[in-house]
Amino acid sequence: MKPEGPTAHLSPVQKLPVAFLAFFSVALGFVGAVHAYVGARIVAPQGLTGLSAALAYGALVASALLIPSGLVARFFARAAVADRLSWIGLTLMGFMSFLFVGTAARDVIWLGLGVFGALPADAGVQAGLLALSGAVLVPAGVMASGVGYYFARRVPPVLEVPVALPGLDPRLDGFTFVQISDVHVGPTIKRPHIERLVAEINDLHADAVVITGDLVDGSVHALSDDVAPLAGLRARHGVFFATGNHEYYSGVDAWVAELRRLGLTVLLDEHCVLDHDGARLVLAGVTDHSAARMHPRHTSDPVKALAGAPEGLPRILLAHQPRSAAAAAEAGFDLQLSGHTHGGQFVPWNFLVPLQQPFTHGLRRWGRLQVYTSRGTGYWGPPLRLGAPSEITRIVLRPARTAS
């Protein structure tokens, strides 16, 4: 018989940390406000009564409770139950996002028409138009969610990106990195999806496979079986990993040990030199740009990552966030491979990414440094991809004179 500890008499909810309960309360309040707005601007104008009204408003209340529950289910429910709650809550989150944004856009247009006197004078006609627009927004949101779900759940297409590096040794012409990023193995991305991903990557016969962070959303205890297929990744020079911010939310030290156990090379502000047919290049990795706030010994440092590296070789950096570019350029890197942004993942949030990152996706320049930002291979939160497709990226090095 186990002795009772000081918290043995507490309920599961009472055992939860204060920060968790505070987050849940804020999330519930915000989500509740969104649902109240949608109810007032979409449901109320329909003039529903009786059972129809009860079902409509009951669905809104249920959705407002399930969305935050899906976000935090793993903290209070058994794994199987938590995964189901997450699926339901996160799917509803995506749908309500579309519905909220559509409703807000409709109301802005409606307000503009009113300011310019373009609305019908008859109040009854106005009410009818408001109800009709609301009735259209609901199936439009369902359709957008369905299309976004398809693009999120498929194995991503391979996107080939040639990168021209001045003075590249001819023996490195055609050297390929296969990059994946932001897979977010967790409540809705599981082992079968990772197995399909590994098979697709292995078919590309990469010289090196690189994973630029945010691989997981959960602990090693919860997700080790789902991540295990990564041990089957094959590349001539190996598989390399740099941490993202979500690794720090998920227990970074345990994940570094687990990934190394699976055979991945984890680069924590360090580098290795790859010898390819007699030509060499430097491949380095830094910890996430924000890591120091969560793990003081993991301050992201591109200069440290290059310490002792041979001079005169191409220098490629794995850095989860594009905003590492300024420090990477100053350190002397030629190419940075990043992720983090998801390309915005789905409209209209893709338009907000530039407020936080210098690059959203694609190949860009920061001075002489070239930065490639992946849209990501998985997704976070709602199983949706719309207007920002996921990708497996095949980076092909070319001498500058032969770049196409």
Describe this structure in words.
This protein has 404 residues and is α/β, with parallel strands linked by helices. It has two domains: 18-152, no CATH class; 158-402, Purple Acid Phosphatase, chain A, domain 2 (4-Layer Sandwich), CATH 3.60.21. It has ten helices and twelve strands. The chain has helices spanning 18-43, 50-72, 79-115, 123-153, 191-202, 220-227, 245-249, 252-261, 302-305, 325-331; strands at residues 158-165, 176-180, 208-211, 239-241, 265-266, 270-276, 279-285, 315-318, 335-338, 362-366, 369-373, 392-399. The chain has a six-stranded mixed β-sheet with strand order 1-12-2-3-4-5, with helices on one face. Helix 1 crosses helix 3 (79-115) and helix 2 crosses helix 3. It is elongated. The chain starts with 17 loop residues before the first helix and ends in a 5-residue tail after the last strand. Residues 1-16 have low confidence and may be disordered.
